[in-house]
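Annex B. Sample input.
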Amino acid sequence: METPPQLPEDIIVNILCRLPVKYLIQLKCISKRWFSWISDPQFAKLHLAQSKKNGNFSSQMVLLLTEPLDSVACEASGDDLDDESKLIVELEYPVVMKKTPDSDELVDGWLDLGGSCDGFICAVFEQERIFLWNPTIREALELAKLHPFDPKGTFSYGLGYNFSTDDYKVVRVARPSNTVASNETEVEVLELKINVWRRIQGLQSGIELQGQGIFLHEAIHWLAARETGQKKIYAIVAFDMVEEKFYELEPIPDNIEESKQDFLGGGYETVLEAWLLKEYGIKSSWTKVFSVDRETLHGYKYWENALCYTKTGEVVIDYDGPDLVWYDPKGKISKTYTPRNDWDWFQPAVYIESLVSPCNYATNRQNNSDRKAH
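Annex B, continued. Sample output.
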């Protein structure tokens, strides 16, 4: 019996890099060769690049810090919202994410989330320990311990990728409380391959970052408030990953500024609006995408936080902590999902599925140390 012809390895790899991550994880079981291909860090980078280029396979997920721990498929269709087998991926914390390095007890949700990039989520425990976590492949890496800071201060984190060095950077912006003498904001940066926190020039005085940083256009972006006398002006502040400098992208639209509480997802406004900056850095390109009466979204809540858009044009909204809402602006209909949760609310983080492992960068650090030792 003749042996069936085999495709060349480069063609097989090219086909594999176009498949969704969940199928690739299953295909690792086919043979040792396929396991080797799919586990290769270079294949992970190739797959990620293809996913970004194509845009069809990087399924957006929302990590929910709930008890038990879950991840929700943003791209779920209306019918899937009633089928948890299609909507929910059950997760567990990686063993490295312990409450103390010598403990057997895992962090169990006592985390702050500091943004995501390329499938990684930045997770912070008690403002002292920090992890890069890829929930898709269930791997995490603990980074260098954070420097002590006023525990009553406010902290903002961001995670991004530096194309010039093929490395990831974590940014911490720490602002002291009124209980300390200094009002200076401290900014520290960690490069993953080096794993050392270093302090850089901070923000201008009076600027306060809010929420998780969002990485796009080779910069991390935050909503920021700048105090001018008795008034606060809101704008988008960005951190350039190469130059390591902050800059103000653009103020938010003037008519949003007039009802800034609604822009921040709180307050007592009756309408929830979504705005899109169509041309990066051009204030006049702000365009209102939709406006919806909050009563349409199942009545009054304390806050709404739009998390992401789906490929079908729906917007996924964190609704008051315990609920997720999928809202269709065209059909003006919404559907709510309430995760199983032993707590009153959850923290969400949007990420894409990827095969990139943070542990590969720990290997790079060890290799660099070995070369220096010799």
